[in-house]
Specification:
The structure is a single chain. By secondary structure, the protein is α/β, with parallel strands linked by helices. Among the domains are: 62-135, no CATH class; 325-540, 3-Layer(aba) Sandwich (Rossmann fold); 552-612, Sandwich (Immunoglobulin-like). The protein contains 17 helices and 25 strands. The strands form six sheets. The protein has a nine-stranded mixed sheet. The chain has a five-stranded parallel sheet with strand order 1-2-3-4-5. Strands 21-22-25-23-24 form a five-stranded antiparallel sheet. The radius of gyration is 25 Å and the shape is globular. It starts with a helix and ends with a strand.
Length: 613
Amino acid sequence: MAQKKYEADCKEFISKLMSFLEKKPYANRIVGWHPLVCTENDSFIGGIRRNRSQTDRSKISIGDFHPGAIAAYQNWLRKKYHGSLDDLRKAWGDKHITFETAKPVISELVEAGAQGGIFRDPLKSPAAYDYFEFFPSLLGSFKRRLAKFFKEKTDGKALVLMHYGTITATLKNCEPIGTRQHTNNNDFLEMLKDPNIDVYVSAPLYESRHAGQPYFTYIPVDSVTLHGRMYAGDNDERTFSAGTLRHGRHRGVKETCAVMMRDIGWYMVKNCGAWFADMSYGRPRKWDAMRYPWFSREETTTPMRQMFDIFTEGLKKKHASGSEIAVFVSASTPRYEDIYRAPPLYYNLISKMLFRDMNMIGAPYDIYLMSDLANPKIKKDYKLYIFLNPFFMTPQERIAVQKLKGKGKTLLWFYAPGYVDRERGLITEGISEVTGIKISKKDKRRELLRFKMSDRRHPIIKNVGGKGSIAKGYRDEFWEPLHPEILGPVFYVDDPRAISLGTYPDGKTALALRQFDEWNSIYSAVPVLDTNVLRNVADFAGVHIYCDEDVVLAADNRLLMVNNGYEQNRNLKIKLPERRKIIDALTGEVLSENKKTFMLKLQKSQTRILKME
């Protein structure tokens, strides 16, 4: 993608395609262009599959050493350091380096974490961190140049769509080795600033395609909205009529209807768009699994039409977020993490907690890039801020965090926020500064991170039955030796001013709350909390909880979507933030009038869309 010839060929092809389509009778109905340019899946740089299950760190392949890519890296360095050779040499600690000789060194890129832990020493190998910051822009900047070309060719009248920004998809990946640093969209903030891209696209979570499972998109969708862009779901649901069994084919017509309504309901609540991607090939093909259409049967088109009508009706009222929780995810932190040791940490933070448990607490949330915390346009009235992985923080992010500490807000932290510092190295005091809670590091370098809840009475740990939390790893005979669940460094709360809510087996505090005059800080050294504790934290922070049971739910100022799985019929108590009239959006039935609570019946595998007036 750094080759000028390749880019020229792409633009020539686009020009010829546009000229060809201009002569067609449907030319005036072409409203946008969606180039797919990648070497791995929808929007990633590939080329490292040979790393799969590679046990020898010295044999890892990572980065791009093509002359065009090296030249692009050197130009990127010139821009970052404003052409100053002195600044480059000072940053890298190398008095001989020049912009012409700067190149990535694989041994530095794959260097092990300090003392066998998750984090690399930020004071060593600074060139590697620059390279990992640059690398995703090889694809990102190429797509941005294509977007500009489309806008120029259409006089700015056509939409430009891109598959890009799936930050959480790559954060939790462990294989092939090095994929988190190589195969990512971690330059997404720069993409969002580009005025030539209108819509960002991704498929929803592939592990969550059945009724009763949450809808989740890998893109921090509220950052997209914050920057004045649109998210569109690439819905390739395997409906009941799909031939393929991969990625959760629905178990019948009823489930297809429930899942489609869940997904479209979520899009309405988040003020997004979507399309339905039917990847069947038609009857002439011999591959039976892909012969049969996914969305063209009446059983699927009927609920689509019903939801489209609700969608259209909902546009008459201005959308406003119904979330009082903001979740932040860092795309900068992975530069400083070990390619082998970090994945189990994210298996807990992302796969277990973010993908599922946070979506079942009975309250909606918004999700942003950590870098957007400093954006002046971000919503100011969240009550709970959840920080997943800002283990490295920029000075601007630290300032933005400090500004949150007041007005009754609650901040929830996991594991090592602020631990990685480009000026001071790996510093435990950084965690204390960010959280406001004194944190210390155990002498033991690594252990299985787990704690048991305190026996004290406190609203954050109510109704959890003395249970705790454990950051389990993959526990797979192939992956566990490569990505062990024994994590380090190991931190604990060492602050008499904090309330201990959970302790390690050795008695040291792993979960704690410190209450300040105008804000609260909650810190968990173990990188996962379950649905009950997350719900309790939200309730403690003053967040409105619509339902106290584990349920798939989304809400804005107009609509409430509730989805049920196959396990049982349910009769849920729904609590509203204020007295509203509740109408079933499909049937028109009035379910509640001028009340703050009502009972909602849900059959097995059913989604209900409710209008709030």
